[in-house]
Amino acid sequence: MRNYDFAPLYRASVGFDQLADMMDRVLSNEVTQPSYPPYNIEKTADDAYRISIAVAGFSDADLSVEVKERALVVSARKGDEDKGRSYLHRGIATRAFERRFQLADHVRVTGATHADGMLHIDLVREVPEALKPRRIEIARGGTVTTSRAIEAQDA
């Protein structure tokens, strides 16, 4: 596995620290990503998303959905309900898991529902007005504002 040094990226950019940290985290993670439980991420509108996780065999009480430090953490712990049972075949996995999703800036979790063995988590991206693109009027070439004319005379 190659190791990459992102120090030049830190020196040559402003405000991209999170991107460099994420790349560093992804590339340094030598452990394969878990495939359980399976999940889908879908775009439901221009600024809305839904994460659907297959959680067959888990009840609402077994599941936990939290947002910590810009990460969505979904975890499940199954109680000891299976003690004393003898299975001939056990194909439904109900082992404990923890799945993390990094959230982008201004993405907020709006709700979670659990139905038919699926956990649906709805997210929405809310960009503040200050960060939305805005059009700047360009003044005509011959007009100078009063404050600039006074500053030019003082100099």
Quick tags:
Immunoglobulin-like; 4-stranded antiparallel sheet; 155 residues; 3-stranded antiparallel sheet; alpha+beta; single chain; elongated
Number of separate helices: 3
User: What is the makeup of the main sheet?
Assistant: 4 strands, antiparallel
Rg = 25 Å
Strand content: 25-35%
Estimated structural class: alpha+beta
Mean pLDDT: 79
First CA to last CA: what distance?
61 Å
Shape verdict = elongated
Got a strand count?
A: 7
Q: Which topology of the largest domain does CATH recognise?
A: Immunoglobulin-like
Our count of domains comes out at: 2
Q: Low-confidence parts lasting 5 or more residues at pLDDT below 50?
A: none
CATH class type of the largest domain: Mainly Beta
Q: Write the CATH architecture name of the largest domain.
A: Sandwich
| Major β-sheet strand ordering | 1-2-7-6
Helical residues, percent: 10-25%
H and E order = HHEEEEEEEH
Report on the architecture of this protein.
It is a single chain. The protein has 155 residues and is an alpha+beta fold. The protein folds into 2 domains: 31 residues, no CATH class; 114 residues, Immunoglobulin-like. The chain has 3 helices and 7 strands. A 4-stranded antiparallel beta sheet has the order 1-2-7-6, with no helix packed on it. Strands 3-4-5 form a 3-stranded antiparallel beta sheet, with no helix packed on it. The chain starts with 6 loop residues before the first helix and ends with a helix. The mean pLDDT is 79.
